């Protein structure tokens, strides 16, 4: 497989992933972004923890999530637990962002 073929394959996979993301976005209430992954979920719990030596880390648990990862064969995940020393971003999605305009 040439470098050009690989690039074309990855581009097609990313486009397919974007289309899937667009299709499922309205099913979820939260977007969770960590340094390694991007998730959609309806249930998220973020806990700030401290180690014995005073370092702060985050523990994020999610149920019934969708994960942005084009290399995963299945992107729906029943339970997710992330422990990280890096930033975590949790955003609540406004349902009005996904409503289609009424036909006139």
Automatic annotation (TrEMBL):
Highest taxon listed in the record's lineage: Bacteria
Name of the protein this chain belongs to: DUF2469 domain-containing protein
Source organism per UniProt: Actinomadura livida
């Amino acid at each position: 497989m040439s470098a050009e073929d690989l690039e074309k394959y990855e581009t097609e996979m990313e486009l397919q992933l974007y289309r899937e993301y667009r299709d499922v976005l309205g099913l979820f209430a939260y977007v969770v972004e960590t340094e390694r992954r991007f998730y959609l979920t309806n249930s998220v719990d973020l806990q700030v923890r401290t180690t014995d030596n005073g370092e702060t880390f985050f523990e994020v648990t999610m149920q019934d999530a969708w994960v942005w990862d084009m290399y995963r064969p299945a992107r729906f995940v029943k339970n997710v637990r992330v422990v990280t020393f890096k930033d975590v971003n949790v955003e609540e999605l406004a349902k009005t962002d996904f409503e289609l305009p009424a036909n006139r």
